[in-house]
Amino acid sequence: MTALHFVASDAPDAQAALTAMRARHEDAGEKAAEIIVALGGDGFMLQTLHRFLGSKKPIYGMNLGSVGFLMNEYRDEGLEARLAAAEPAQVHPLRMHAVTTAGQSLDALAFNEVSLLRETRQAAKIRISVDEKVRIQELICDGVLICTPAGSTAYNLSAHGPILPIDAALLALTPISAFRPRRWHGALLPHRARTRFEILEPVKRPVSAVADDREVRNVAHVDVAEDRSISTTMLFDAGHSLDERILAEQFVD
User: Are residues 221 and 101 located together in one domain of the fold?
Assistant: First the structure.
């Protein structure tokens, strides 16, 4: 029998599910487990991906949150059969290197997206370069984000960005409430692309950078690139793979 370790968010429903699952299945503990079972919502799944990064343990999530796009349906029966038939999806994170106006640096990983957001009532002004070539001299906006295929149905979709198949070797670059240039709706980048965001007028128009749940404020410039040296495996119920979810999301009413 596969050795499992159960983790859950702090939400009451998730904690109740954790108790129920541990009553039905032996919890082998974090070190001995072959599969991590995460109980919660998409936000908790992102936390779990970061927590077990480098462990090479696949993660199977069950939804006890709101949207649950990265999760499977919660059921307290038949877990062994579901895991045996589960379909794997490998995901790679973005690596963000941010430098603040005070000269401090922060590195962080993002499985969904790296987003830059204005901090005040003033619109942000951002210069965007891809592979050291300036592509947008001055983007006036509320913000801009770059996302992975796994993250393309999250904040990116809300900002009217494109949905990417999970195995697409692409990243989506999407503006958030762009004022100028008005007709620029974003771009698809090869996954090897190295993107730099330079903040123009950073004192008057301060900007924060967020990699999943890691935030740094008052950035001067931010570099983002996919890190293919890092990967983790997510497990999805047969017939409900991440590929299928991404495809289905494009045909909803």
Answer: yes
